[in-house]
Amino acid sequence: MTDNHNFSHLHVHTEYSLLDGLSRLEQLVKRASELGMQALAITDHGGLYGAVDFYQIAKSYGVKPIIGCELYVAPSSRLERQASDKRPYHLTVLAKNDTGYKNLVKLVTLAHLEGFYYRPRVDRDTLEKYSEGLIVMSGCPSGEVPRAIIDGRIDDAKSAAQWYKDTFEDYYFEIMRHGDVPQLPAINEGLLKLKDELNIEIVATNDAHYVLREHAPFQDILICIHTNTNVQDSKRLRMEEDSYYLKSPSEMAEIYQDLPEAISNTNVIADKCNLELDFETLRLPEYKDTDGKTSIDFLTELCNDGLKNRISNPGQKEIERLKYELSVIEDTHFPNYFLVVWDIARFVRQHDIFFAVRGSAAASLVLFCLGVTDINPLDFDLVFERFLNLERKEMPDIDMDFQDDRRDEVINYVVEKYGEDHVAQIITFGTLGARAAIRDSGRALAMPYPEVDRVAKLVPQKLHITLDEAIKLSGELAGLYQNDQAVNKLLDTAKGVEGLTRHSSTHAAGVVISKEPLEDYIPLQRPVKGFENGVNTTQYAMKPLADLGLLKMDFLGLSNLTILARTRDLISKRTGQHLALTDIPLNDAKTFDLLSNGETVGVFQLESTGMTRYIQDLKPSSLGDVAAMIALYRPGPMEHIDTFIEAKHGRSEAYYPHDDLEEILRETYGVIVFQDQVLYIARRFAGYSLGEADVVRKAMGKKNPGDYG
Question: What does the pLDDT read at residue 237?
Answer without folding.
Answer: 82
